[in-house]
Amino acid sequence: MPAMADETLFQLLHTQVVAAAYGAGRGSGDEGLRAGLTVLEGMGFRVGQGLAERLPQGALAFREELDTIKFLCRDLWGAVFGKQTDNLRTNHQGTYILQDNNFPFLTQMAWGQQYLEEAPKVLGEQFLAFTCGLLRGTLSSLGIESSVTASVTSLPACKFQVVIQKA
Amino acid sequence: MPAMADETLFQLLHTQVVAAAYGAGRGSGDEGLRAGLTVLEGMGFRVGQGLAERLPQGALAFREELDTIKFLCRDLWGAVFGKQTDNLRTNHQGTYILQDNNFPFLTQMAWGQQYLEEAPKVLGEQFLAFTCGLLRGTLSSLGIESSVTASVTSLPACKFQVVIQKA
């Protein structure tokens, strides 16, 4: 099955996870939406933790916070999406913006006609929540607590904002 | 991140999916269990469909039903689990038994202490339901309707029974 990249498998499953998080029995409206986001973010967090725990010991003794963030942009993105983020900005005060101009989950989402009638903002939240958790969980396992939010800039581009929580 | 195989990523997400399917708000007891299985099987079905739809056109013009099943054992298993099934048996009347002596989802499950107190049968159903759907969905997209069930023989070994529905 050479045409079935493992990223495809992961992305197909992610799509189903998003659909299930908003499926029947989860309620609707704002409350159902928030519950779905919480579930997705939590799943991403634990997957991020799992990935970080499987890293070779000693490979991640970053001295600088910025090095850890660069690791996310390059290595985490590489492992999960098969590429790097397109841009990284920081205010040098613990806030980092990771930009992806062609985010795979959004590219895929755009193919799914069932979603096209919903508002881009809601869509974006649904398809970015898992990855927010993924970033937060990976960072947490590397000893850095953070809050991560995301927004769609212009489909399929998006940015993730990581705010480090100072001890 | 060379140590992060993509299979790992997929398996980590699968674990979270199973946990979410049985998490808070889904009810408990037999009814909750059945609902969880239905959700997982349905997700597997749609992922299987998605994988099959991404195959190169013409690559799957199998003449014999058995060839299609062998494709599952070799190529589908390879794409999803990075190996082949260990054994395939058939009664030559449309029933096939795919055996895996070290099924990755069960290996991983055995590591999770939170599950150790539950009965192996229930565990097995929870961790095999997605893959039952995966087989059924892939077959469906290849033009073969089937029913697929699975059972744990002895952890982490299991077998999947595919019964082809004759037209």
Short recap of the structure:
Chain A is α+β, with helices and mostly antiparallel strands. The first copy, chain A, is 53% helix and 16% strand. In chain A, strand 3 and strand 4 form a beta hairpin.
What structural class do the secondary elements of chain A suggest? alpha+beta
| Strand order, sheet with most strands of chain A | 1-2-4-3
Kindly report the greatest chain-chain contact and the residue count on each side: A-B, 34 and 35 residues
Give the radius of gyration of chain A.
16 Å
Task: Please tell me what the overall shape of chain A is.
Answer: globular
Give the termini distance of chain A in whole angstroms. 48 Å
Number of helices of chain A: 5
Helix content of chain A: 40-55%
Approximately what portion of the residues of chain A adopt beta-strand conformation?
15-25%
Listing every helix as H and every strand as E from the N terminus to the C terminus, the arrangement of chain A reads: HHHEEHHEE
Give a count of the beta strands of chain A, DSSP E runs of length 2 or more. 4
Mean pLDDT of chain A: 84
Q: How would you sum up the major sheet of chain A?
A: 4 strands, antiparallel
Assembly context of the chains = homodimer
| Uncertain ranges of chain A | none
